[in-house]
Design brief:
This protein is of the alpha/beta class. It has 2 domains: 3-119, Enolase-like, N-terminal domain (Enolase-like, domain 1, 2-Layer Sandwich), CATH 3.30.390; 124-359, Enolase-like C-terminal domain (TIM Barrel, Alpha-Beta Barrel), CATH 3.20.20. Helix content is 40%, strand content 16%. It is built from 14 helices and 12 strands. It has helices spanning 47-55, 66-70, 78-88, 97-117, 121-125, 145-157, 174-188, 204-214, 231-240, 253-262, 278-291, 303-314, 330-333, 361-367, and strands at 3-12, 25-33, 38-43, 132-140, 162-166, 193-197, 219-223, 245-247, 267-268, 294-295, 322-323, 346-348. The strands form 2 sheets. Strands 4, 5, 6, 7, 8, 9, 10, 11 and 12 form a 9-stranded mixed beta sheet that branches. α3 runs antiparallel to α4. The two termini are 31 Å apart. The structure holds magnesium ion. Magnesium ion is lined by residues 166, 197, 223-224, 249.
Amino acid sequence: MKITDIEPIHLRVPVVDAIPDGTLDVLVVRITTDAGITGIGEVTSQSYVCKACFEAPRSAARRHGLTSILLGENPLDPERLWEKMYYETNRYGRRGAAVHAISGADIALWDIKGKAEGKPIYELLGGCHRQTVRAYASVLFGDTPAETGQLAEQFVDLGLTAAKFGWGPFGQDAAVDLEHVQAAREALGGERDLMVDAGHAWDVETAASRAEQLAPWNIAWLEEPLAQDDRKGYAQLCPQSPIPIAAGEGDVTHHDFEDLIDRGVHIVQPDVAFCGGLTVCRRVSNMCQQTGRRAVPHCFSTGINLSASLHWMASIPDGDLVEYCLRPSPLMRKLVKNLPPLQNGRVPVPDGPGLGIELDDEILREFRVG
Ligand code: MG
C-alpha cells in the first residue's frame, strides 16, 4: 500500500476570540492511499503554521515539508513513519509546530492501519481494557464562588462523576481560592472527583502552601501550578505536595514526558493532536506504567481528538478517564457525524475499524479556510 495524497484541511469558525478554546480553529489531516483507504487526523495548534509544515517543499537535509516526506510511503507502519517525520523535520521541528503537525499525520496513519486490518485502533495499541471511558468536563472558575457552585451543579445534572475547574479568578488570593474550591466541592458532593487547574499561577513556595490549604477538600489533582518551563520547580514541589500534581498539556514527544516523569509529576496530560500523536501517547503510557505514574489525555478540540484519546485510554490498564469538551462550537459538536456521546458520565469507545468515525462533509465545506 502507498500514500498517494495528503490534504491538510484548515477549519475555522467565523469569529475566533482570543480565549483558551481549541474548538474554534483546527487542522484536519486526510491521507489517501492507492488501496482506496483514507485516514483522518487532527492538529490542535496554530493551523496556518501547521498547514505550512505539510505544504513546504523539500529542502536541504532534515528540513522537509511533511507531505514530501510521506508521499509514496507505505502507511502501515506508523512507528517507522513517526521516526522518519521527526528526523526529517529536525532542523525546524523537535519541540515545536512541526511536532504538532506530525500528530495529525500520525493519527491518520493509525486510522489507515486499523481500516486496513479491520481493527479498532485500541486493538493495535495494546488491546481492549474497557468499552466505555469515564469522562470529566472542565470549565473556568466562576467570577464568584456562588457561580462556581452553580457550574458544578450543572456538571452533576449532566451525570458527570468528575469535574475540573481552572483559571479565571483563581490563584490570586488564598482565601478567595479556598472559597471557590469549597463551593465546587459542596455542589459536587463527596463522591465525585474534583480537579483544580491553577493555570501557571504560582512559584514553588506559593504552590506548596496552597496545596496544603486545598488538600482537605479532597482534590484529585492540582494541574499546572507552576509555569510549564519551571522544571526545577516541579522537581521541588512534587515530592512535598499533599495533592498529586498534573502537567504536560503543552509538552511534546516522549522526551518531554520522560523529563516530566523524572521531575516527579504524578499525572501527565499529553494532547494526542498536539504532542506528536498516538505513537507518542503510547510511549508515554508505557513509561507511566513502568514508573507508577498516570496518563490522562488533555482533549479540548474536536471529535477526532476525542476519538483518538478514547482509543488510547481503552488500550491501557489504568486508562479510565478522558477530558470531555462541552463547548458549543460546530467543530466540536458536528464535525464528527458519530461523535461519541456523554452517557451517564461515561463515553463509549468507537468500535469500528481505525478511529471508527466519519466526518460530516457539510461541516468540512462550511468551515474550510481558502
Ligand atoms: Mg490545563
